[in-house]
Amino acid sequence: MKERSWFISLGIIIYIILTGIDRFVYKLPNYVYIPIAIIGVALIIIGFIKDKSKL
């Protein structure tokens, strides 16, 4: 099985933690939630691009 890029793992972890906090602990304002979510998604996309370039 191919090892996943740490960019993808970090992006997924950031997004899961952010969503969990927003839903179950404290409702985050949009000016906090949106930039952090964009960073998480960007890390996932960068990880996929780097994986494709290694092939």
Write structural notes for this entry.
There is one protein chain. This protein has one domain. The mean pLDDT is 90. It contains two helices and no strands. By secondary structure, it is an all-alpha fold. It has helices at residues 6-25, 30-54.
Keywords:
about 55 residues, mainly alpha, 2 helices, about 80% helix
Strand content: under 5%
What is the distance, rounded to the nearest whole angstrom, between the alpha carbons of the first and last residues? 15 Å
Number of domains: 1
Uncertain parts: none
The overall pLDDT average reads 90
> How many helices in DSSP terms?
2
Specify the structural class.
Answer: mainly alpha
Blueprint of the fold:
Blueprint: H1 6-25, H2 30-54
Helix pairs in contact: 1-2
Task: Quickly describe the structure.
The chain has 55 residues and is mostly helical. 82% of the residues lie in helices and 0% in strands.
